[in-house]
Fold this sequence. Notes:
By secondary structure, the chain is α/β, with parallel strands linked by helices. The protein folds into two domains: 28-57 and 319-462, Alpha-Beta Complex (Aspartate Aminotransferase, domain 1), CATH 3.90.1150; 65-316, Type I PLP-dependent aspartate aminotransferase-like (Major domain) (Aspartate Aminotransferase, domain 2). It contains 16 helices and 14 strands. The chain has helices spanning 28-37, 65-71, 82-94, 106-117, 131-139, 167-177, 201-214, 225-235, 244-253, 279-292, 303-316, 319-338, 356-359, 369-381, 390-393, 421-436; strands spanning 52-53, 99-103, 123-126, 143-146, 185-188, 218-221, 257-261, 272-276, 351-355, 383-384, 386-388, 409-413, 444-448, 459-462. The strands form five sheets. The protein has a five-stranded mixed sheet with strand order 2-8-7-6-5, with helices on both faces. Strands 9-12-11 form a three-stranded antiparallel sheet. The protein is globular and about 55 Å long. The N and C termini lie far apart (55 Å).
Amino acid sequence: MPYPKPTRRSWAEPWKVKMVEPIRMTTRPQRERCIVEAGYNTFLLRSEDVYIDLLTDSGTNAMSDNQWAGMMLGDEAYAGSRNFYHLWEAVTEYYGYKYLVPTHQGRGAEHILSKIMIKPGDFVPGNRYFTTTRLHQELAGGTFVDVIIDEAHDPANEHPFKGNVDFGKLQRLIDEVGAKKIPYVSVAGTVNMAGGQPQSMANLRALRELCSRHGIPIVLDATRAIENAYFIQQREEGYRNKKVAEILKEYCSYADSSTMSAKKDTLTNIGGWLATNDQGLFEEARNMVVVYEGLHTYGGLAGRDMEAMARGIVESVDDDHMRARIGQVEYLGQHLIDWAIPIVRPIGGHAVFLDARAIYAHIPQSQYPAQALAADLYIDSGVRSMERGAVSAGRDPKTGEERFPKLELVRLTLPRRVYTQAHTDVAAESVLAVYEQREQARGLKMVYEPKYLRFFQARFEQI
């Protein structure tokens, strides 16, 4: 009997495995004990007790042989490391910014930027918050204002660019508080907390025009801007035949400055930067980095780390790499769509986001359904994911009341160049198994809450 012909030709990753790290599967009783000891918080699990780690793509990427070779060429001089200049050249060539201040990771850049640009009483509009970004803005005395389009708050909406800024919302804020009270507009591409959703080139270009009229700078969170560039290539008219690298540089050109967690797109395990075309901001940041991170030519990093970043930037804009990177996420997401499991749609860039409010519809948001779902996935299979809902949203700094966002999500994040298609199948099948048992799920109560960024260290008990 002849085999049926495939409906499409298979694709493969544009790399081959050269080194492996053993992982082990635990038993269900072991995992039940581990999650109780971790207070039902997947951040508090030991990595050795995790089978497939989809907690984050931050610093969990696999570096290439070229990057590892570069690590051996680290110039560990305290001042003027040659690797710093290699990094600066790469950032200028591919992101287009004139000036560079390295930091140990993205939040180091956010901290410095917030202290320089934000005054008490300021308002910082953005296309949905990110946890560390908003906290630094609040600690500097600012108030974050969400100006993302309404479609971003609907997980089932198929809008191709749910990371877009709503110009009506932004203009109303400008009219209400005045441009002088807005130190900058904060934009992210892609938007993590909206489900890894991209912003269109047309939207950022129009934002540039609006902000220029009012004299307001734009600061880009470029952490996953390469993934955003890929979505522009695939979804926006006029970009299909352009290279990702070309699209990235145009996208960044509409922002005055950018913060970067190089632990994501640029394929490294540590690192970040603040890049800008504003010489005045650069001079202040270059001075302040000495106080908080290290000298301006290392910013808390070893020379070898800066060299790995420089080489990772070149590799990260390769079109074949991006097709495989996004393709693996789409592969996981399409499985879940085929099984009618509620997820954020369209499928995001770095992760698949489960709609916990729909999956655990019987659990009120005050009992943290996304936190419960992440714990249940771990118990089922040893797959570690993370909550992106009420726990991550935290409390209003003025009222102390809990924030309950419309999106109550569990993020299944794919590290770059780490897991195979078989690992992805295991994760998908675990989601299906938990989904089929969803009516038995129980909510959680928080029994320990740290003051800042509580999702990292909070502890829970089952209700």
